[in-house]
Amino acid sequence: MKKEITIYDIAADVGLSPTTVSRALSNHPRVKDVTRNKILHAAKTLGYQSNIFASSLRKRKSNSIGVIVPKLNSAFQSAVLAGMEKTATQAGYNLIISQSMESLDKEISNTSIMFNSRVDGLLVSKAGTTDNIEHFRPFFQKNIPVLFFDRVPENNHCTGVVINNTQAIYDATAHLIKQGCKRIVHVLGNLQINVYADRLKGYKYALMDHGFVFDPANIITNELDEDSGERIVEKITQMKPMPDGLLISNDTSAASCLMALKKKGISVPEDIAIVGFNNDLISRMVEPNLSTVHYPSYHMGEVAMKNLINHLDDEHQEILQKTNTITLRSGLIIRESSLRKP
Amino acid sequence: MKKEITIYDIAADVGLSPTTVSRALSNHPRVKDVTRNKILHAAKTLGYQSNIFASSLRKRKSNSIGVIVPKLNSAFQSAVLAGMEKTATQAGYNLIISQSMESLDKEISNTSIMFNSRVDGLLVSKAGTTDNIEHFRPFFQKNIPVLFFDRVPENNHCTGVVINNTQAIYDATAHLIKQGCKRIVHVLGNLQINVYADRLKGYKYALMDHGFVFDPANIITNELDEDSGERIVEKITQMKPMPDGLLISNDTSAASCLMALKKKGISVPEDIAIVGFNNDLISRMVEPNLSTVHYPSYHMGEVAMKNLINHLDDEHQEILQKTNTITLRSGLIIRESSLRKP
DNA sequence: AAATACCTTGAAATCGGTTGCATACTTCTA
DNA sequence: TAGAAGTATGCAACCGATTTCAAGGTATTT
């Protein structure tokens, strides 16, 4: 193993102390310009590479941010991560990413790994089964900022970046009602997750405000994956009378339903109007194009990261810490799948 | 700032030396069971957290793997990353992820950051404009394994994990010919990238083997994004005679073309047969379903990561280093978009 | 009982950068 | 020109875990 070049080698080379070399390399103002240049030059010549372990050890700072998502393999999450990466890199932070696979156990284990990796901050979108945030306690105790996005815990005293899910589905429901739908079925995921619980509220409120009665039979909770369409359509077709509106909590599932409906000869939007969620690529590619709710995923990544990093820079993090929720703008996008000609 | 608990505190607590504590905590066999338990218990009681900086500094090992992808925000990449994450986590490695945004400059900068972060190994899928691998030299010099996947450099002396792009497109082309296509247009991305260069070969070989003459006019290089369809179809419809087969190097673009064709009243597969690439979700959701080439993305992530980690564990890494290319199985999936009834 | 082998533990040096405090050297002011 | 104020540099003590070498202790063998 070749020997590493250290600041001591540089110091010896230029005839100065390691202290000065360290200062010069980290742009400390109290070093003469001539000296700094001499040191920088020597560093380059010798092929010096700073040892972040030593630096982190001394500074007690890793310069990296941890991110825990339920699943990497999703259009939404990868857009969020793209936004996070951009922002983190700009600010000089590394991104350590892991996925909880929707499992609380794995989330706990990931959290612990992140903690031991001494990330300077943590960004989390909860796993579906996570019903408490005990496992983040080590972070809270050490005052390491934890920020949630999209899926945030219930009684949180951490900042969360979200959209207004209630409003989004309220609008979508109202839209379907305006299109003449009388029996609207809402398909969503695990109701332990705030995202879906909030949407359910929006659905109920909208019904109420428009003089409809909420019927629990019109709620379907389901995996919202690629194969969910068959299962959902199966249920729907057995309802009597059959629903004429479908509000599905993600576009993949909505597209899947669309296919299953077509296969059964049920036409969209005439027999059933459909609204999806997320404004994924797929919503623009299926036929008819899916009405959906625009979710600012990339932007959410940027905002969450920027906010976390501000917490780090700011001395008064406790103050920011106790702030609230950042709500991003989302919005209903109306396309053919829910548009009935008058 | 509360004081950190160190192995010295534990040592003092149980009346042993830091050496023994260190050994006990890292499961060194030469510690009596009784002693080990006493130490483990004390560690838990005191709330000890190992300091990886100190550990990494001493061991010269970060226990993390760097990954550089062109874009995080892609169905293919996120599947690859999911596979990598799973494998890395299982093996006890962290994942540091960054994106080059298809820019050589950013790839260089990311590489340098990864190097300074002292990742134990690096996984890279090249940016489109990357035409040399000079910037990885620091890794080569320090004998830190670098492994490429999907997009690998030309004259590489690193292991690469790929699929047989030539064969894949050969098969797709042969399939279209068998379906009666006479004028097949091939749409692909930047030909500097091995992936597309290889596919072009496959296309040419297949034409040749079936008695067709290759015509450069039938090659379209294009961004393969969501909006590419309009542009591509525009070009196609101006060709005389119009092509009757379309081979598009990713499903997003293929789906986009499909939509644009429909809008023009050109029917698929009757007027033009289409084959996409990747077997993305979208290929199964558009109408008609897209024929495509299955790309084992998740699996590629697993294999690439597993291989890299093996390099790390193995003492004889130079030997492995000089091995070759790992080719994963891909395969043509025939669906309606290219299936002409006899 | 003495010699040998094995098991368990410890002292001290190391990994390399940072920083509080001290000192030497300039420059400016009265 | 003495003294004050400011600037540039250095000393040495960290930050904590790991590891080499050595030593003390126990068990086994002859």
From TrEMBL, chains A, B:
Keyword S-adenosyl-L-methionine: no
UniProt-listed PROSITE patterns: HTH_LACI_2 (PS50932)
CDD domains linked to this entry: HTH_LacI, PBP1_LacI_sugar_binding-like
Molecular function (Gene Ontology), one example: DNA-binding transcription factor activity
Keyword vocabulary terms for this entry: DNA-binding, Transcription, Transcription regulation
InterPro entries, A to Z: HTH_LacI (IPR000843), LacI/GalR-like_sensor (IPR046335), Lambda_DNA-bd_dom_sf (IPR010982), Peripla_BP_I (IPR028082)
Signal peptide positions on this chain: none
Limits of the HTH lacI-type domain: 5-59
Listed name of the protein: Transcriptional regulator, LacI family
Organism whose genome encodes this protein: Cyclobacterium lianum
